[in-house]
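Notebook B, p. 112. Complex prediction, attempt 2.
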Amino acid sequence: MPDLGKYAGDVLLAYGATFLLLAGLIAGSLIRSAKVKRLLKAAEERKNHG
Amino acid sequence: MAINWNAFWEWANPRKFMRWTDRALPLISVLAAVIFVSGLVWGFFFTPDDYRQGSTVKIFYIHVPSAMMAINIWAMMLVASLIWIVRRHHVSALAAKSAAAIGMTMTLIALITGAVWGKPMWGTYWEWDPRLTSFLILLLFYIGYMALWEAIDNPDTAADLTSVLCLVGSVFAILSRYAVLFWNQGLHQGASLSLDAAENVDDVYWYPALVAIAGFILLFVSLVLLRTRTEIRARRLHALEMRERVKDA
Amino acid sequence: MSLISVKDLTVSRGGMPVLEGLSFAVSAGEVLVLRGPNGSGKTTLLRTLAGLQPPYAGEVMAEPESVAYAAHADGLKATLSVAENLGFWAGVYGGHDIEPALLHFNLDALRERPAGNLSAGQKRRLGLARLMVTGRPIWVLDEPTVSLDAASVALFASAVKAHVAAGGAAVIATHIDLGFEETVFDVTPFKARMDVVRDDFDEAFL
Amino acid sequence: MIRLLWRDITLAFRSGGGFGLGLGFFLILVTLVPFGVGPDGEMLSAIAPGILWVGALLACLLSLDRIFALDFEDGSLDLLATAPIPLEGVVAMKALAHWITTGLPLVLAAPALGFLLHLDSAAYRWLIVTLLIGTPALSFIGSFGAALTVGLKRGGLLMSLLVLPLYIPTLIFGAEVVRRGAGGFLVATPLAMQAGITLGAIALLPFAAAAAIRVALR
């Protein structure tokens, strides 16, 4: 851990907020991807066997 | 130089797109993760503090790339919208839709890191500085664009209307930028990085920043591919559901 | 020579084809009546004929600006009088006289009445009277007789007769028998098939 | 086209709401501001240009969704789209009618309300000039937003979200001219910019709005 001096709180806040936002974006993208994949699979099966 | 444009557009055929991204996406994702992390690690752990700004200079490894991406993603959406309007490539419209949420996140990151950096420098988190204000306006444009996508049921209608909004919005975004500059000549630094690096920033800061920028770009590419794939599947799902409804009727 | 004709027309609603392979022609003096169950795509077909939406495939051939369209909504303004409503549309379509239309649809006595105070049937009559002031040869009508009583239906039928006798044509979607010589066109057999692969729409995905 | 203009103006007058509503809203807004910020005359004088401009903008927004939504609901928009007038002309006339029934009354009422807010006497002239130049842009930009959301459920809220960011340049230049005018500075540049935006909006946005309506009707 480097010495961040008197601005440590600010720098860590900036990095923390960024990672939180990016993590939210990536997680949201992955969750929606998985959900749509699942729903589409079910719909394709209904189409082929229904 | 002769480019075979037909072959180029072939890539945007949904089926082809799904096929090549299926192979390319894992590769790009890994590359993005590696470069993104190494850029930020380099910047965060292995660069000296600035003699005036102290350790806050480290914020720029996030702030600058995210701000660049916020603007460039809107530009990419504009190009994609134009391609949709002119050539009616569905993938293009869906790519624009997919990019919007990423662009909005980048804008938010640029705003937040800018505000946090501003606190020790300006003594306040928020200052109506032209650049910060412009990004706030850009955020409003992203929100409006995404809200319009959500509000319209028919996907082709939504693609058409959001494309028109993106076009008109781009003009007004540029107008706003000039208006804001006019309204308040601010406290922001000039462009922190320009192509002429030597003039602005020391190499110690410049190289990790370049890596960070590359990381952000790759992160965007992999996310936009992932999200576009999702949208293509969602579109197919929508089509199948419509068929079922017609059959039942 | 037909006034309006379609060839291999496919029409779509919300991106989904609903009717396909339509081909017909309507000549001057002819009335084409469209039949088919609710939701079979008659409205979509009529909107396509009127140029409000592009064909999904195939083509509609008609002179530009030759179609007058009337649908379920009459486009009336509640606070304008009968004469003002009609006068407005007459003005938009090039200043035809509104008197014959008012007289024909028995609206003369109501001319100063705000359209908001009309009964449903009177509103409908006013909406149909609009067709007479457009001066356009092809009338495209979607369920024109809704909320009309028997006498008003007769008024409407005679207006259509007079129009086609003067060299016009009409395409009408209706369930009732209007009592004139008409060509009946049932859209049911043209219901778009759901099991075929089309190259443009959802099949382009995946 | 003149008939369309007349019809829309007549409708706005007769249906109540359209005409008086924006003006009343403007008055109430200006009355509320001193309650919010306190009765200090100097403070009010300082913020008066901004309040009047923001008030005009919101008052304009209030009646925007009427431009196309009513015609869409009663079927008039279908009929206008098949009429011999180009749809671009329809949009332009409707935006013009909106300006005459909303923007113009605001311009006329603004000086009286400026009085309530202790608006600097040097600024009056510029307030009227900028509102006169700027409000047509508000109507034309607004008609574009209304065209994008025509036929949508709860389109009104979405329209505000889309339109307000587009109003930013007009607002900035308008308020800037009044502020500079009050301070006795040169106003030529922002005034020219604002006029440019208005002319551009009038010339180009009807095409975008007509394209949006065609898409929405299909």
